[in-house]
Target: Polyketide cyclase / dehydrase and lipid transport
Amino acid sequence: MEGIWGFHLRSAPGDRTRLVVRTRGRGRPRPLTRPFDMLLGKPAHFVMQTRQFHDLRARVGAEV
Model:
């Protein structure tokens, strides 16, 4: 498997900043990696990224 994970800061209205996260990955052989990705990879990534954003928000003192 190979992939890239990018974090980008974008200007937002009201003197704010928006964090945009982009990911792209690929594994071979695709017929074997796709079911794993759909069943385990994507849900695990969602949980991990949600926790990261929660922790980051707490560290910068932003209100939810």
Remarks:
- The helical segments are 30-60.
- The first strand starts at residue 2 and ends at 12.
- Residues 2-60 form one domain.
- Residues 5 and 23 are 5 Å apart (CA to CA).
